[in-house]
């Protein structure tokens, strides 16, 4: 089972020793602490020994060269090797020595030697990386490294794709290999490290800035991603978008998979540019399902896939499922449409013959329009740009409408699919209070905040209201069930998202 190594961010050994979080981690099964000797301004043989007394054996000891991201103090090769030798003698599990540092006559004393290389500016070409791997693998004490570690800096997720070949190269040579791509786009290299036989991955302390950009916290790795359990046979799921950091899908799906006792890990993938090469590469790591968010909804339609009838009608997919049994290898669904209609039916009962006015004519409006039309509703589209309202109304077999007409019509249901009212513009509403028909059902697809201005006004008008959270969870539940063929733990998925949204609203 791979470990989670929590990198010390402290600038003094004294601070590390006083840090209760790190002291507790030293004795937590499945965890290692990385002592970054180059960072400590109070490093001397005595303070190093004090730290080793606390953290060995569950530690990785590193004394980086400045050109490989080293910290506060410059040490000569001889000094660095002496610190590492002392760490090995004191029982540290791993010592990390850059390939640039000669290790002749280095006695590991039972520690494992990581031979490492760092490039903080780019991802070198694959041939160069393979040559670097060979050099590192063959240069450990006694003629070979116990672990090869290569850390690089991608600009986009596409830069990280050749790293798959490098991981497979390391696996074929049977030397444990750790490849780390720094930054948000490199998250997959950290979370999936165990799938490729890496002995550990790096996380940061809670609230710590992290010693490399893009490092998740140890708690995220442990509790959200279940890092230590991820094996070669675990399916991978992902949400693709840009930006993606705010997405609640990783929380909802990982929490759901864990609660259902299923193997599977769900990653946020920040993709600039075409998603297809990323998906094709991640399939090699077991990618089975994908959620699609802005701006990839259109690009994804160019991928060869079989679409379900709803996705064909809506003209958009928000979900891909991988098939192995027949071509095309992707199956595309639109789970938004069904989830939106389900959320409404849960409150209004049958939609058959009901008048549903949809505010907006974008992607969410399309999904809602086709979803409710399928349940027998009469659809009206109200939009800032009337031509788009006309076009969607024509496609769905409904009618375009102005706000003035909406007030006259007094529809049974109003659905907001514009971003008006969404955080941070929480004072905005697509309708004024007087424009909301008394007694109608008002559904806002916006879910941050949970209670939008529109919903507040609707409640004041005596309307029944539905927040966008129900639709968000509903579409996630359908994805979960499509991918896993198991019943989704809806309540658990709902509650974790609700809790996270409430937390966000506090800040
Ligand atoms: P989209 O394709 O960009 O469409 C946005 C629509 O809102 C367009 O019709 C646009 O009108 C209209 N609009 C934008 N700004 C406006 C403004 N200031 N005043 C009036 N109308 C405005 O976006 P989308 O993908 O449909 O997403 C829209 C919202 O739906 C999101 O913000 C999200 O909160 C919500 N959503 C929720 C879920 C869920 O699961 N709960 C799922 C998907 C989406 P024009 O045509 O005139 O530009």
Structure overview:
It is a single chain. This protein has 507 residues and is α/β, with parallel strands linked by helices. It has three domains: 3-224, Aldolase class I (TIM Barrel, Alpha-Beta Barrel); 250-334 and 485-497, 3-Layer(aba) Sandwich (Rossmann fold); 337-466, NAD(P)-binding Rossmann-like Domain (Rossmann fold, 3-Layer(aba) Sandwich), CATH 3.40.50.720. The protein has helices at 13-17, 20-26, 45-55, 77-89, 126-137, 157-160, 162-172, 187-191, 218-224, 249-259, 276-283, 297-300, 309-314, 335-348, 363-374, 386-396, 403-409, 453-460, 468-484, 490-506; strands spanning 3-7, 31-36, 59-62, 94-98, 112-119, 147-152, 177-181, 200-204, 236-241, 265-270, 287-292, 305-307, 319-322, 330-333, 355-359, 378-382, 399-400, 413-416, 441-444, 464-466. The strands form three sheets. Strands 7-6-5-4-3-2-1-8 form an eight-stranded parallel β-sheet. α10 (249-259) packs antiparallel against α20, α14 crosses α15 and α14 crosses α19. The chain starts with a strand and ends with a helix. The protein binds NADP nicotinamide-adenine-dinucleotide phosphate. The site of NADP nicotinamide-adenine-dinucleotide phosphate (NAP) has 23 residues, from α15 and α19.
Record keyword descriptors for this entry.
single chain, 507 residues, alpha/beta, TIM Barrel, Rossmann fold, 8-stranded parallel beta sheet, binds NADP nicotinamide-adenine-dinucleotide phosphate
Walk me through the topology.
Layout lengths: L2 E5 L5 H5 L2 H7 L4 E6 L8 H11 L3 E4 L14 H13 L4 E5 L13 E8 L6 H12 L9 E6 L4 H4 L1 H11 L4 E5 L5 H5 L8 E5 L13 H7 L11 E6 L7 H11 L5 E6 L5 H8 L3 E6 L4 H4 L4 E3 L1 H6 L4 E4 L7 E4 L1 H14 L6 E5 L3 H12 L3 E5 L3 H11 L2 E2 L2 H7 L3 E4 L24 E4 L8 H8 L3 E3 L1 H17 L5 H17 L1
Parallel strand pairs: 1-2, 1-8, 2-3, 3-4, 4-5, 5-6, 6-7, 9-10, 9-11, 12-14, 15-16, 15-18, 16-17, 18-19, 19-20
Antiparallel strand pairs: 11-13, 13-14
The chain binds NADP nicotinamide-adenine-dinucleotide phosphate.
NADP nicotinamide-adenine-dinucleotide phosphate (NAP) binds next to helix 15 and helix 19.
């Amino acid at each position: 089972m791979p470990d989670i190594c929590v990198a010390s961010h402290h600038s003094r050994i004294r601070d590390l020793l006083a840090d209760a979080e790190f002291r507790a981690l030293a004795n937590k099964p499945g965890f290692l602490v990385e002592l970054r000797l180059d960072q400590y301004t109070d490093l001397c043989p005595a303070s190093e020994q004090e730290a080793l007394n606390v953290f060995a054996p569950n530690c990785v000891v590193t004394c980086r060269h400045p050109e490989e991201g080293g910290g506060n103090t410059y040490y000569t090769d001889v000094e660095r090797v002496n610190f590492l030798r002392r760490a090995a003698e004191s029982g540290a599990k791993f010592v990390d020595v850059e390939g640039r540092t000669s290790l002749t006559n280095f006695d590991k004393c039972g520690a494992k030697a990581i031979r490492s290389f760092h490039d903080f500016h780019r991802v070198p070409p694959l041939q160069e990386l393979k040559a670097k791997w060979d050099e590192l693998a063959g240069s450990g004490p006694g003629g070979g490294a116990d672990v090869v570690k290569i850390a690089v800096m991608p600009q986009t997720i596409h830069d990280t794709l050749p790293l798959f070949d490098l991981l497979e190269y390391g696996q074929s040579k049977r030397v444990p290999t750790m490849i780390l791509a720094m930054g948000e786009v490199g998250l997959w290299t950290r979370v999936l490290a165990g799938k490729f036989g890496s002995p550990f991955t790096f996380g940061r302390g809670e609230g710590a800035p992290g010693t490399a950009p893009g490092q998740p916290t140890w708690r995220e790795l442990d509790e959200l991603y279940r890092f230590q359990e991820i094996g070669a046979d675990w399916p991978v799921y992902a949400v693709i978008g840009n930006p993606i950091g705010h997405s609640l899908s990783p929380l909802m799906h990982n929490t759901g998979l864990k609660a259902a006792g299923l193997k599977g890990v769900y990653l946020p993938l920040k993709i600039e540019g075409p998603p297809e090469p990323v998906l094709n590469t991640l399939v090699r790591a077991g990618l089975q399902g994908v959620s699609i968010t802005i701006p990839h909804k259109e690009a994804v339609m160019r991928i060869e896939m079989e679409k379900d009838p709803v996705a064909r009608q809506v003209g958009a997919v928000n979900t891909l499922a991988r098939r192995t049994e027949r071509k095309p290898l992707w199956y595309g669904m639109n789970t938004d449409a069904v989830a939106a209609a389900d959320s409404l039916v849960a409150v209004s009962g049958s939609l058959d013959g009901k008048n549903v006015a949809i505010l907006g004519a974008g992607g969410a409006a399309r999904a809602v329009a086709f979803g409710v039309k399928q349940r027998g509703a009469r659809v009206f589209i109200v939009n800032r740009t009337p031509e788009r309202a006309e076009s969607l109304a024509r496609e769905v077999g409904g009618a375009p409408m102005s706000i003035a007409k909406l007030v006259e019509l007094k529809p049974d249901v109003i659905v907001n699919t514009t971003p008006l009212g969404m955080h941070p513009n929480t004072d905005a509403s697509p309708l004024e209070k007087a424009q909301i028909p008394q007694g109608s059902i008002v559904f806002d697809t916006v879910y941050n905040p949970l209670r939008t201005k529109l919903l507040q006004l609707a409640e004041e008008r005596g309307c029944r209201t539905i927040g966008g959270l129900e639709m968000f969870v509903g579409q996630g539940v359908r994805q979960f069930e499509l991918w896993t063929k198991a019943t989704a733990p809806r309540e658990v998925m709902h509650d974790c998202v609700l809790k996270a949204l409430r937390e966000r609203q506090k800040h």
